[in-house]
Structure formats: C-alpha cells, structure tokens
Amino acid sequence: MKSASFHPPKRLLMGPGPSDLHPRVLAAMAQPTIGHLDPAFIDLMDDIKRRLQAAFGTANELTMPISGPGSAGMEACFVNLVEPGDVVVVCVNGVFGGRMKENVERMGGHAVLVEDAWGSPVDPAKVEAALAAHPGAKALAFVHAETSTGVQSDAAALCALAAKHGALSIVDTVTSLGGIPVAVDAWGADAVYSGTQKCLSCAPGLSPITFSPRAVEAVKARKTKCPSWFLDFSLLLGYWGGGAKRAYHHTAPVNALYGLHESLVLLEEEGLEQSWARHALQHRALVAGLEAMGLGLPVAPAHRLPQLNAVTVPDSIDEAAVRAQLLSRFGLEIGAGLGALAGKVWRIGLMGQSASPAHVMACLTGLETVLAEMQAPIATGRATGAASQILFG
Prior knowledge:
Layout: E1 12-13, H1 23-29, H2 39-56, E2 62-67, H3 70-81, E3 87-92, H4 95-106, E4 110-115, H5 124-133, E5 139-143, E6 145-146, E7 151-152, H6 155-164, E8 168-172, H7 184-187, E9 191-193, E10 206-211, H8 213-220, H9 233-240, H10 254-270, H11 272-293, E11 308-312, H12 319-330, E12 332-333, E13 335-336, E14 345-349, H13 357-373, H14 383-392
Helix pairs in contact: 1-10, 2-10, 5-6, 11-13, 11-14, 12-13, 13-14
C-alpha cells in the first residue's frame, strides 16, 4: 500500500464537541516542541494556570489542566476525593450524571441518587432532602451543563446546599466553561472540572480542573492511598505547583498546551462576559430560525444551554439520515441524542468558534434543505430571515 499523509475533510463542527478551532490555536499547536521541563515551558505553564483561574473565576492555587479529556478531569476529582465507604449524593438528569455515579461506585463509595427527568434541571429541593437524609455525606456531585440534554442547573444553589450540609461539591463544567457564567469562588464550589474542546475551542485532550482549599484539605486527609498513580494530585502538584523547580511526573502534551494557552489568550482578548453574550446571541438566533421552521426544543427556555441545543426530531423522520445528509452534502456535523433521548433529538452545538452567525445560517439552511426534501412537516423560506432579525435587527 502506498504511504500517504492524512488530510481531514473540512467540516463545520456543530455537534456536542469538538468545536471549530481558531486558526491561531491551530498555528500555536504547530510551533516547535520543547521539553516539558524547559524553563520556557515552565513559564508557559504558570501563564496557563493564571488564565485558567480567570476563566474559572477562582483564586484556587490548585488549578491546572489534566493531561487527558474531560473524562480524565472527572475521574481525577473522584479518585482524589472519594474513598471506600464514602457517601456521595449524585444528581442524575442525563448521561454525564450517570458517569459521576459510576465513578463513585468504582472508588468504593456509596452513591445516593437524586434523579430528575432528562430535559429538566436538577431540583434543589430533592438535593436538600437527600443531604438531610444522609448526614455526613462526603460530597454532592452534579453536572452544571448537561451535554446530553442541553440543560443548565443552578450551580450556585446546589453548591450552597452542599456547604450547608458540610459536603464538598464536585461540579462538571465541561460544556460550561467559556460559554456561560462559571464562578467557582462565588459559588463556593470545591472540585470543578472542564474540557478544552467545547467553548474554549481548543483541541480535545486536556481537562482544566480547580480545587478549593477545602478540597485540598480533604485530599491531604485521606485515610487510603489514591488508587490512581497518574491522577494523584499529591504527585501532580510536584509538576504543576508554583516555582521554577518542578518534579518530573509525566511528559506533558506540550503542543496541546500551546493550543490551550492560545485559546485562553483569545478568551481574554474577547472578554469573558462578551463570550457569554456571544453564545447567548447565537443561541437566540438559532432558536428563532428553528421555531420559524416549525421545529421544537424540548427544554424549557429558562433552562436551555445556549451552547448546546436539543431539537426535537419531527415524526416519521430518520434523524440519522438527516445527520448523514448534512455531513456528506454540507460538511456540517450535528449530534445525535444519547440514552433516553437517542433517536428523539438532535444536539446542535454553538460552542467557541462555532458560535457565529455563519454557523447559525449554514445550519438552518442545511437542515431546512434536507428536511424539505424528506417531506418533513416544516415551513420553508422563513428560518434564515428569523435568525437574521435577531442577529442584525
């Protein structure tokens, strides 16, 4: 077989992640690799940490990117905080709350479930009741932005309940960070993890995390050894801690970290609040176009994620065939439903660089074209005009 380099097709990424990367991020990742203990790289690590603190809204000393995707950040939180026998209240209103439960059980903990319907936010009253019924619970774990359903839960209220009952809060902000307000210190959140491939518009493969002083104390007070060597914070801090002297732990993904740094520079240049506003505006435009077309969104407006939109598939329409047509003809990727919503919704992402008027218009045009050809019960000729009215007045 003839040897040949790989050249990926050009796509518009509007699924649940990854999102499109800014050309500056791609260029940053193509810079020459240097050693992971090079003094210049140590300086870069410090700047990444500072910029992540700003993005998370925290002064936490333990703030760093885990070398691995958001799932690694999730596991890092649980593997460092949960010991055998610990009780953890876990909120499940979608796929990723279920993964939190799985982590608790794999660490030998006992997961107390607070379940809400897929498409609904976590109910603080149910959480309060669960924490009251389990005094001494080690932690409360919940997903701020549930990627499988497009629902946002009230992180401030849930973290306050955890603190009231003496529990740590473990918060998934994988789809939140950079797209909607994340305010770790204002929430009083203890262990928070995210991902780089969503609203930060960086390549997949890194998971920013931050631990409060209270969470750090809990790690130090463990009675058992952390069961993961790679994710053990007592070891990782020797590498990601402050100062020029760093202890070798693992070979960091140097070029990926170049990309993360550039994405954080871009976020700082735009401004956090401006980024949140941009995501909200593109969401309103997309929803206006979808509704003008006659498509519905199953999540109540007050709880919708602007960066991840669940859209109800019309009756008699093969949702997978629609996605396949969008990809092959328009180079446009949207996501399928997961779990209880499989086959029932599409998930349309407006994340980072993918939260733009061009993406909104391309998505509405492609979706209308394919659905009309499939004789779906939609109105044609209205969607882009409705979106333009929101975007341009």
